Amino acid sequence: MAKAIFRPLTADWDMQKKSAAGTDMDVVANTFIKPNDRLSAFERLELYNRQYWFRLLDCMYEDYPGLQAVLGGSKFLKLATAYLTRYPSKSFTLRNLGRRLEQFLRDEPEWITPREALAIDITRFEWAQIFAFDEAAKPPVTPDDLLDNKTGRIFLSLQPYICLLELDYAVDEFLIALKNLESGGLRTEASNAMDAAPETKKRRIPLPKKKKIFLAVHRHENTLYHKRLEPEAFAILTAIGKGKDVETACIRAVTASRRKNIDWPAEIKSWFENWSSLGWFCR
Amino acid sequence: MPANAFNGFTDYGIGLGLRVPHYQHILEKKPVCDWFEIISENFMVDGGRPLEVLDRILEQYRVVQHGVAIYFGSAEKLNREHLKKLKRLVKRTNTPWLSDHLCWGSVDGSYSHDLLPMPYTFASARVTAQKIREARDYLEVPICVENVSSYAEFHASDMTEWEFLSEVVERADCGILLDVNNIYVSSQNHNFDPYDYLNNVPHHRVGQIHIAGHSKYEKYILDTHDHPVLDPVWKMYAHAIKLTGHTATLLEWDDHIPSFDEVHHEALKARKFQKNLSQKVAKAVA
User: What is the DSSP letter of B133?
Assistant: First the structure.
């Protein structure tokens, strides 16, 4: 039964007539499901097959409105179906449904041709928002924590919910425009109600142009935000996140910078003040 | 028998499913409501808004956990990671009992996110009951299993659904979350008398009742939870509480969700049936 349920529907949202092995699905269904006076075994199994795909595709539409807008409804549907076929949900929660989507797109870029880079950027950004929404938060670091340090070098940790993204397209502006067009929300909650077929939404927003951006996707007082960062600020946070001490992270970022005539001590001080006020550093 | 071992000896009255569109109303207006049922999996997260809302609700209201993904009927072992997170939530909510469905939904670690019907066999009852016991022992809270609505029946079944439910709960020594709407939906889809179902489950094990709306199609009925409760379901509810006594009752409304007041008003219709029952009992005693 599971094989039949997980198998993609036809373009008309019907169960496929043949099994993967080529057997008539009527025959397959009749081996384990009883027909009744109104529905054949095939039709009864088809209800579950449809329900599985409606529920999961609906979740993909809710989690990836930007990717859908970039690819178009029809292409997105094919991509989502292929993704869910290769990577069925391995989690008890639909929250994690898109966890492997970026990897899938890198492995099978034919689904996003000719907009591979843009599609991957927006996928990363949309997943980061799902992740940052309810990932764990640790107690923020306090001055006392730093005073205990006897090594002379300061090590900080970033909050687990923060996602740092280096992107080639300004997908943040694009997604804001998209959400303004159609007020979107996070995924439908889990329940045991039956779902209807997912709707393909038509959106007309100009696609983002190529432009290098650095983003931190985070939350503050449990509201989701994304914040653009200077390249050096991004480099410092990335290095800190990888376990470098603050001094090393700053020196490396400034040394690698192409920007001239910057008052780096003042700049870096203001960044750290801002990040600390947002509670980005934790114990 | 409103309070029993299967609902933690509580007498919770009439509750509502806690749903996102009502958060603001509940947190700001603090309406009177006997209790809220949460979908456990929506709060089995590590941080952020869901837990903040839950903590604020817990300050004011009684909360009971209802799950959709333990899958007692799946062939594979219980997911330990899932149970760990569930136990963390149980400690947070202090839920007096916990419910999930008598169904399967995962194969080899792949989740259908659906509540799939089981073949009603003694072998599957034995395995399912064992898993319910394991989960209860680990979670240290009474468990009630809910009958699901279904659209398919199996050749392999060698008993009725209510016989299967009884077999499982007796073997597991657990409670029943009796979903009256699900019984009605399945009875229409499988041509059985829903009152046979109601009359033949172990009533002393019913710890909670669900009511909900459904949608009728030409050849079948779907459990959509997007309507008020329909009359045949209310009639069954009246019959059910005659058999079980005043039992904690919850209205499920998961799609096309109207205002909090409208949903609450619909749920409170259950009080009329409970009052009728009380009057009949009083007369009989007199």
Answer: H
Amino acid at A182: E
At residue A188, the pLDDT reads 54
The answer to whether B137 contacts chain A (CB < 8 Å) is no
Interchain CB contact of A135 with B (< 8 Å): yes
pTM for this structure? 0.91
Beta-strand pair B206-212/B249-252? parallel
CA distances to A43, A113, A133, A187, A273 from A226, in Å:
46, 27, 11, 19, 17
- What are the φ and ψ backbone dihedral angles of A228, each rounded to 5 degrees? -75, 145
Strand duo B35-39 + B14-17: pairing: parallel
Half-sphere exposure of A220 (CA within 13 A, CB side): 13
The H or E element spanning position A236 is helix A231-241
Whole-angstrom distance, CA of residue A40 vs CA of residue A33: 9
User: Are residues B46 and A160, on separate chains, in Cβ contact within 8 Å?
Assistant: yes
| Burial (CB count <10 Å: 0-12, 13-18, 19+), residue B34 | middle
Which residues 6+ apart lie within 8 Å of A272 measured at CB?
Answer: none
CB contact under 8 A, B111 and A91: yes
pLDDT at position B171 over 60: yes
Q: State the helix-helix crossing angle for B231-244 and B260-285, rounded to 10 degrees.
A: 40
Q: How far is CA A181 from CA A59, A69, A184, A202, A209, in A?
A: 20, 12, 9, 11, 19
Helix ranges (DSSP H) in A93-188: 101-107, 116-134, 143-147, 171-181
Scan residues 238-277 of A and list those with Cβ closer than 8 Å to B: none
Over B195-258, what HEC string results?
A: HHHHHCCCHHHEEEEEEECCEECCCCEECCCCCCCCHHHHHHHHHHHHHHCCCCEEEECCCCCC
pLDDT at residue number A184? 46
pLDDT band at A193 (very low <50, low <70, confident <90, very high): low
Q: In b/e form, how buried is each residue of A230-241, taking b as 16+ CB within 10 angstroms? A: ebbbbbbbbbbb
Q: Tell which B residues from 173 to 232 touch A, by Cβ distance under 8 Å.
A: 189-191, 219-220, 222-226
The DSSP line for B259-284 is -HHHHHHHHHHHHHHHHHHHHHHHHH
| pLDDT, tens digit (0-9, with 9 covering 90-100), for A227-266 | 999 999 999 999 999 999 999 999 999 999 998 899 999 9
Place of tokens 């990577």: A87
- A1 touching B (Cβ < 8 Å): yes
User: In chain A, positions 47-76, which contact chain B (CB-CB < 8 Å)?
Assistant: 47-48, 51-52, 55-56
In DSSP terms, B251 is beta-bridged to B16, B211
Angle between helices A41-63 and A73-86 in degrees, nearest 10: 110
Are B153 and A88 in contact (CB < 8 Å)? no
pLDDT tens digits, B125-137:
999 999 999 999 9
Q: Name the residue in chain A with its Cα closest to that of B86.
A: A92
Q: Is the pLDDT of residue A70 over 70?
A: yes
